[in-house]
Amino acid sequence: MFRRASLVVLTVVVFALGSAASDRAGSSKAGSTAGGSSEYLALGDSIPFGYIAQAGFEYYNPENFVGYPDWTGIALGLDDANASCPGETTGSFLSTSAPDNGCRLYRSVTHLHVDYGSATTQMQYAINFLQQNGNTAVVTLQLGSDDVLLLEIACHGDPTCIANGIKQVYAQAAANMGTILGNLRATGYNGPIVIVNYYSIDYSNQAITLLTSGLNQAIASPAPLYGAVVADVFSAFKAAAAPAGGKTCVAGLLNAKANGQNLLSCDIHPSQSGHKLITQTVLQLIPAR
pTM above 0.85? Predict the structure, then answer.
């Protein structure tokens, strides 16, 4: 889940950093390889990455971005390898030529939590990791929101255009998720795979919530075929936001930001309270070790 407007901020920051952005030695996580000792593999987009909009120079060091994979790894006593990329779509996860929502640009100018090079897909990293780490205890996967965001961008927010295109987006996301799950199982990995679904950024907004619900059904549809389970973050956030009238932002589950009138609004990404709620939802599905 990553808005293209965020790329403007990122590009300015990277310009200020100059050639330093090409130096990948600044973080031990950024230098991790598929042959490391990590036992928890986190895959996906900007939410598992722990992305924060308008982060400024914090973009340069990925350890400034803390997401639910960090909390999940701590709770399970596992070292997490977080391969997620802000702006990754279900298509770009599989192919370096498929449309994305900024992942390739992000990777080209600053660090991910693990470094797998611009010519390698997140899918290939995951395959390599699982083949080289037979003691992997769990895999989480969260993808699909950027597929919808690309449609919204192409439609310039027009509701009719979005309604006309969304079924195809859902169908393609479901097909891609099936391919991804099949590839993960083809490595011989037979442990838990948890698909993490999406929260509505405002449950009081019916249109937004229906789009999110439809996406969640699509990305979950291939799960039974591959022995994957779904962490129902949608329902967890809905219950937590209920006392705030369904306003996910007001409930403190999203990152707050100041708008031009010095009033607080929210980014679309989780706050630390939101990430911890996602962690609790994921942990319910992982067998005790």
Answer: yes
